[in-house]
Structure formats: structure tokens, C-alpha cells
């Protein structure tokens, strides 16, 4: 049984008209926005260019893992809280049971938020795109039989995938809620096709 403390936060702040008008393109936390992308993009660049930069596999591996570790800590503890008002962590109670906690920033009575639409877009774009790139690297290393790189790539998938999963849980709730959202979406699409059968035509 997990203890979830969740409050709805818009993925791109699209539902907050006041925030969109006043902070649509302003980046309030430029340092956090920079480091949100710096560590994860640097790890990808080092992975792609390491064989050109040095012949030492150990040096490349240590550098990539350090960058991935810094990225995991920064995104989990700093950039998520500042840029989109989300935070997640795991805690163990006195009985030894593990609890996952998911938090969202409280919205003020005026409906304003301290994060901007630009920051939200940067945050989610980096959070979603980079794990997908590491998944591509994993398949590439597997099919090209680069076994020594497979452990590094798997580390990238695990660390960045864990942050992605944690923040999705913060955004939409538990796994049960994810299933409910998918079911509701498919149900709405089905009803739309039933009521307006001419709106969709097979290609």
C-alpha cells in the first residue's frame, strides 16, 4: 500500500489562463532550466563521441555514469520542484514497508503558479525525449553486439526512466489512475465515433 499525496498539475500549464497571460514565455528559473538539460544532454553527447575523444572505455563509462547520477539527483530533487512544482520520493516506515510519496505544489486562491509554460515545456520535453534516446541506444548496442556498452546504456535507461515514471505518477496519480485515464479516453473516442460516424474515415 503506497501513500500518495497528489494534486493535479497541468502538463504544460494549459489550464491556467492567468499564468499563461502573465508568464507564457518567461523562464523564472534559468539556472534550473539549464541544468535540467545540461547533465542529460551531456551524457548523450559523451556516449556518442567518447570513442573519438579517448580510447579508454573506463574513463568514458565513469564520466557517463557521473553525468547520469548528477542528472537523476538534480531532476528528482531540484528542477522538478522549481520548474513544474512536482516532487516524488520513497520512504521506509518503522515496519520496514516502502511507501512512494508524490507531491504537487499547492495552487494559490488566485490560480497563479510560480512556474511558467516555457519552463513546463522544457521540463517535460527533456524528461520524455532523453529516456527514449537511451532506449534507442540500448537496441543499437544489443543488435550491434557492443556488450561492454550495454551496461552503460541500461544505466541511462533505468535512471532517466525512473525520473520519468516518478513524475508521471506525480502528474496523473497511481497506476490505477493511469488505466482509468486511458479507459476514459478510449471511451470518449468510441462515443464520438458512434455519434459522428462521418468524422473518421479509414485511409
TrEMBL record:
<dbReference type="InterPro" id="IPR008564">
    <property type="entry name" value="TVP23-like"/>
</dbReference>
<feature type="transmembrane region" description="Helical">
    <location>
        <begin position="55"/>
        <end position="75"/>
    </location>
</feature>
<keyword id="KW-1133">Transmembrane helix</keyword>
<protein>
    <recommendedName>
        <fullName>Golgi apparatus membrane protein TVP23 homolog</fullName>
    </recommendedName>
</protein>
<dbReference type="GO" id="GO:0009306">
    <property type="term" value="P:protein secretion"/>
</dbReference>
<feature type="transmembrane region" description="Helical">
    <location>
        <begin position="122"/>
        <end position="143"/>
    </location>
</feature>
<dbReference type="GO" id="GO:0016192">
    <property type="term" value="P:vesicle-mediated transport"/>
</dbReference>
<feature type="transmembrane region" description="Helical">
    <location>
        <begin position="149"/>
        <end position="168"/>
    </location>
</feature>
<feature type="transmembrane region" description="Helical">
    <location>
        <begin position="30"/>
        <end position="49"/>
    </location>
</feature>
<keyword id="KW-0812">Transmembrane</keyword>
<dbReference type="Pfam" id="PF05832">
    <property type="entry name" value="DUF846"/>
</dbReference>
<dbReference type="GO" id="GO:0000139">
    <property type="term" value="C:Golgi membrane"/>
</dbReference>
<comment type="similarity">
    <text>Belongs to the TVP23 family.</text>
</comment>
<keyword id="KW-0472">Membrane</keyword>
Amino acid at each position: 500500500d503506497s501513500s500518495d499525496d497528489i494534486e493535479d498539475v497541468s502538463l504544460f500549464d494549459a489550464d491556467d489562463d492567468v499564468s499563461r497571460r502573465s508568464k507564457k514565455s518567461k523562464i523564472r528559473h534559468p539556472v534550473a532550466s539549464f541544468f535540467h538539460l545540461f547533465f542529460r544532454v551531456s551524457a548523450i553527447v559523451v556516449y556518442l563521441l567518447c570513442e573519438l575523444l579517448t580510447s579508454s572505455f573506463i574513463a568514458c563509462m565513469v564520466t557517463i555514469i557521473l553525468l547520469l547520477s548528477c542528472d537523476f539527483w538534480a531532476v528528482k530533487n531540484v528542477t522538478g520542484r522549481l520548474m513544474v512544482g512536482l516532487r516524488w520520493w520513497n520512504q521506509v516506515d518503522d515496519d520496514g514497508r516502502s511507501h512512494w510519496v508524490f507531491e504537487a505544489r499547492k495552487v494559490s486562491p488566485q490560480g497563479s503558479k510560480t512556474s511558467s509554460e516555457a519552463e513546463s515545456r522544457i521540463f517535460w520535453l527533456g524528461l520524455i525525449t532523453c529516456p527514449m534516446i537511451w532506449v534507442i541506444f540500448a537496441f543499437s548496442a544489443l543488435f550491434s553486439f557492443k556488450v561492454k556498452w550495454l551496461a552503460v546504456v541500461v544505466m541511462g535507461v533505468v535512471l532517466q526512466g525512473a525520473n520519468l515514471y516518478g513524475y508521471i505518477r506525480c502528474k496523473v496519480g497511481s497506476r490505477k489512475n493511469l488505466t482509468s485515464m486511458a479507459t476514459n479516453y478510449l471511451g470518449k473516442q468510441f462515443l464520438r465515433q458512434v455519434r459522428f460516424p462521418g468524422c473518421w474515415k479509414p485511409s
